[in-house]
Amino acid sequence: MRAARVFAYGATAGLLGDLLFGDPHRGHPVAAFGRAAGVVERVLWRDHRGWGALHTVVCAGGAAAAAGLAARAVRRSPAASVALTAAATWAVVGGTSLGREARAIGGALAAGDVDAARARLPHLCGRDPQALDADGIARAVVESVAENTSDAVVGALVWGAVAGVPGLVAFRAVNTLDAMVGHKSARYRRYGWASARLDDVAGWPGARLTGVLAAVAGGRPGGALAAWRRDARLHPSPNAGVVEASFAGALGVRLGGTLSYGGRIEHRPVLNASGRDAEIADVERAARLSRRVGWLALGVCVAGRAVLRRGKS
Description:
This protein is mainly α. The chain has eleven helices and three strands.
């Protein structure tokens, strides 16, 4: 069976598995990787970029190498190759859990239980929930859904199309390392530098594809593309700015502004300033848009994989 078909069947099965089952509450492979990366950090940590780069190579490189060995071991069996691709896709994408968390917060807001929404928000993002009212929480959820549509779904599919199972696993490893050590705290400003920069590079194509697909699927292509062109470059993240601006334009809402993370205040640019303030109902709209973007991304990546393999043959 051609590699393009293996990816097509396996990635589709994996995305269907995520749709039906979501993430397991216990024993998730990504959580196991995170624990292993934590052990490596305890051994290697120094307040130095070089040691942080070594941490990135050991963890992300080790995960990619293990995935490559597994793919090589089953390459003579089409069924086993499809099964491995399906399992890897299911393990690294998180679209269903993203939607569930967003809807849980949106449901609490709709019921008027702002305290419950605040308690749930840390499951989705790192904002300080106590500083947010109902509309502020809704805005935070929409922004997190936009960013994680790229990080938790589209980016993984893009790298799976490029490099198969090793690409899927390597992308999720890099993204997980960035979440663990890539933030600008005193401990990780130097040590996490390599993980953060590598995540920027790995996330670049997926973020752009997410932005395009949000424009296509959101019903306001002109608004989404205009917000992307005008506002994305103002965002401190080269990738989050693209997807948040595109979602803002697609949904017709205004995102960005003053944020609070761990007691640290950040003044970010307003995205799609001509839009209205995000509201509770926009949580559901963002979750639906995220789902549509994920499935469109699968189609694009399957087609791209087929073209890539045809060009090599």
